[in-house]
Design goal:
By secondary structure, the chain is an alpha+beta fold. 36% of the residues lie in helices and 22% in strands. The model has no long low-confidence stretch (mean pLDDT 92).
C-alpha cells in the first residue's frame, strides 16, 4: 500500500494534450499567465493557492529560457551591497532561506570561499559579509567567518592564487533551476490550474479596450484558437517586448549569461569559490555540483536570436583566463569541456546604464486594462515577485478576493521533502537501490522520488541506467512522462534532467533511446521519432561545443 506522500501527486501528461487544449478552448479563465519560467510559474502557483481559475502557457517547454540558464544558485547577492541595494539583498536572503525550508531536497547549502590576496581586499569582503549576515537577520545557513591563508589551502588545496592573505567563508544554496521551475508549476497544477507547453500566445486580444484573452497557436500542429481570460499576465522574460501591443515602449534589455561545465576532477575545487576575473574585474562563481564544476557567469548585452543563444569561443577563453589564474594546474582545454549553456536575462531597460549595473529589481505594471506585466527580478525572489503582482492585480480589481490576500504562499508547499522524511518513507520499502541512486532521486524529485522508487521495486528493469556513467534511470523518464508534461525528447534531456549537459558525445544514441521509449506512450511514428532526435542533437551539439559564427 502506498503512503499519502505518493498519492499526493496528480497526473500531468502530454498523453492528454488534446484534452488540455480542449479545456483551454472551452474555458474562460480568471487569469491566463503567459510564460512558463520561474516568474510565470510563481504567479501560477500563487493564484492557485487563492483559488483563482488560472491557466499557464509557454511557446516552448517550461524553463526553456532564463530559468534553465542560471548559475544554479539561490543566493542573496553579496555584490548588490556594493551598489547600495540593501532592500534586494534583504529580500533575496530571506527568500533563499524560505526556499531552503520549502524545497529542502532541491535547495541545498553550499560553502563559498573568497580568497583574499591582500589586507585591503580582505577588509572589504569582511565588511560586506558582516552586512550580509545582518541583512539576512542571521538566517544564513552559517554565519560568515574569516579564515587564515593556511585554512584556505586546507579547504581548497588546489587553489594557486599568488600571495594568499586570508579567506572569507560564507554559504549560499545550490539548485537545479529547471527542476525547481517544473516543481513550482506542478504545484499550480495540483492546486487546480491548467498548464501547457508548446502553446504560443501570438497576440493579446482586447474587447472595448480591456484585455479579453489571447490568440494562441499549438506549436506542434499549427492549430490556432482563442483562449479567453478576464486578465492576462505576461511573464515572458527576455521575450516581453515581442508580446507588447503596438506603440508600447521598450521594456527589456537582454543580457547574455554563459556557463561552462567540466568534471570536478579537471579543476580540483572541493566546493564553491567566488573569484574576480583578471580580464574585467567581474565576479564569477566556480561551483561544485556533485561530480561536476559549473563556472559562470558572463553579463553582456545581447542582440541575437533569443531562441538560439549559445556559447561562443571568446566566452570560453574568458573563463579559461579565470581558471588559469586561480587553478593553473587545472585541465581546462576545449577537450575537457563536458557542456556549456547560454541564455538571456530580462533586465529592465534603463537608458545609459551598462548591463552589469542595470537594476535586478522586478517591474510590475498594468500595460493596458486587464493586461499585466511582470519582468526583471531574480530567480531567488520568484515567490515575492508573484505575491506583489497578485496583490497589485487585486487592487486593480482584476481578481476577486476569494481567499485572503495575506501572504499564504510562504507556509504552503506540496512537493518538497526533508532528508529525515525521505528516510522515514524509505524505511518500509525494500528498494534494492544503492545510496547514490537514492540520494539522486531525493535531491531531484523529493516526494516524487518515492513514485520512482516504487516503480523500480515493482519492475526492477526500470532501475537500469539510461547511460552507464550517470545515475538517471528509465523509471525517471516514465515518471516525467506521467507527472511533468514532457512533450519532446529535449524536454527530458535538457531540462528535467542533466543527462545532456553532463554528456559531451553520443547524443544521437541517447536521443534515439529516449525517443523510442517516449514513442511507446505518446504514440509517435518513426518520422516523429527521427524529427525529435535530429532537433535534440542539433541543440545538444552547440551545448557541448561552441557556436560557429561562420
Amino acid at each position: 500500500m502506498k503512503d499519502s506522500t505518493v498519492q499526493l501527486l496528480k497526473s500531468w501528461s502530454a498523453q492528454e494534450r488534446s484534452r488540455y487544449i480542449q479545456e483551454l478552448q472551452n474555458t474562460e479563465y480568471d487569469v491566463l499567465v503567459i510564460g512558463g519560467g520561474i516568474s510565470g510559474g510563481g504567479v501560477f502557483r500563487s493564484l492557485g493557492l487563492r483559488g483563482v481559475r488560472t491557466a499557464l502557457i509557454d511557446k516552448e517547454d517550461f524553463a526553456f529560457g532564463t530559468s534553465s540558464k542560471s548559475t544554479r544558485l539561490a543566493h542573496g547577492g553579496v555584490r548588490y551591497i556594493l551598489h547600495g541595494n540593501y532592500k534586494l539583498v534583504w529580500v533575496e536572503t530571506h527568500e533563499r532561506d524560505w526556499m531552503r525550508n520549502a524545497f529542502p531536497n532541491q535547495v541545498r547549502p553550499v560553502r563559498i570561499l573568497i580568497v583574499n590576496n591582500n589586507k585591503d581586499i580582505a577588509d572589504l569582503f569582511n565588511k560586506l559579509l558582516r552586512k550580509y549576515d545582518l541583512l539576512a537577520a542571521w538566517g544564513n545557513y552559517k554565519n560568515y567567518r574569516q579564515i587564515s591563508a593556511e585554512e584556505v589551502l586546507q579547504l581548497e588545496p588546489n587553489v594557486k592564487i599568488p600571495n594568499i592573505y586570508s579567506g572569507s567563508l560564507f554559504y549560499e544554496c545550490i539548485i537545479m533551476d529547471s527542476r525547481l521551475t517544473a516543481e513550482v508549476i506542478k504545484e499550480g497544477v495540483m492546486l487546480g490550474g491548467s498548464a501547457l507547453n508548446y502553446m504560443r500566445a501570438k497576440r493579446v486580444l482586447f474587447d472595448n479596450g480591456r484585455c479579453a484573452g489571447v490568440e494562441a497557436e499549438d506549436v506542434l500542429t499549427g492549430t490556432a484558437f482563442t483562449i479567453r481570460a478576464k486578465s492576462v499576465v505576461s511573464a515572458t522574460g527576455p521575450w516581453t517586448d515581442t508580446l507588447m501591443p503596438e506603440g508600447e515602449r521598450k521594456y527589456i534589455r537582454p543580457a547574455k549569461g554563459v556557463h561552462i561545465v567540466v568534471r570536478r576532477e579537471s579543476i580540483g575545487n572541493r566546493s564553491g569559490l567566488y573569484v574576480i576575473s583578471p580580464v574585467d574585474g567581474r565576479s564569477v562563481f566556480i561551483l561544485a555540483h556533485g561530480e561536476y564544476t559549473y563556472i559562470g557567469t558572463t553579463d553582456t548585452d545581447y542582440n541575437g536570436d533569443l531562441d538560439e543563444c549559445y556559447t561562443e569561443r571568446e566566452e570560453y577563453e574568458y573563463f579559461k583566463s579565470i581558471i588559469d589564474s586561480c587553478f593553473p594546474d587545472a585541465r581546462f582545454e576545449e577537450t575537457d569541456l563536458i557542456g556549456t549553456y547560454a541564455g538571456t536575462r530580462p533586465l529592465v531597460w534603463q537608458e545609459g546604464v551598462s548591463a552589469d549595473k542595470t537594476s535586478r529589481d522586478e517591474h510590475i505594471e498594468e500595460v493596458k486594462p486587464g493586461f499585466f506585466l511582470l519582468t526583471g527580478g531574480k530567480l531567488t525572489i520568484f515567490r515575492t515577485m508573484a505575491e506583489k503582482l497578485v496583490k497589485f492585480m487585486a487592487k486593480r480589481g482584476a481578481i476577486r478576493r476569494r481567499r485572503s490576500l495575506r501572504d499564504i504562499s510562504k507556509s504552503r508547499f506540496l512537493i518538497g521533502m526533508t532528508w529525515k522524511e525521505w528516510g522515514k518513507a524509505l524505511a518500509n520499502r525494500r528498494t534494492g537501490l544503492d545510496e547514490k541512486t537514492l540520494q539522486h532521486l531525493y535531491e531531484n524529485y523529493g516526494k516524487g522520488g518515492l513514485h520512482i522508487v516504487d516503480a523500480i521495486r515493482d519492475n526492477p528493469r526500470l532501475g537500469e541506467k539510461i547511460t552507464a556513467d550517470q545515475l538517471y534511470t528509465w523509471a525517471e523518464l516514465d515518471y516525467c512522462m506521467e507527472y511533468e508534461m514532457i512533450t519532446r525528447v529535449r524536454d527530458f534531456l535538457l531540462r528535467r534532467t542533466n543527462l545532456s549537459l553532463h554528456q559531451r558525445e553520443n547524443h544521437e544514441a541517447l536521443g534515439r533511446a529516449v525517443a523510442e521509449r517516449m514513442a511507446e506512450k505518446l504514440g509517435w511514428d518513426e518520422k516523429r521519432i527521427g524529427d525529435e532526435v535530429v532537433e535534440y542533437v542539433r541543440i545538444a551539439h552547440w551545448n557541448s561545443f561552441f557556436l560557429d559564427k561562420s
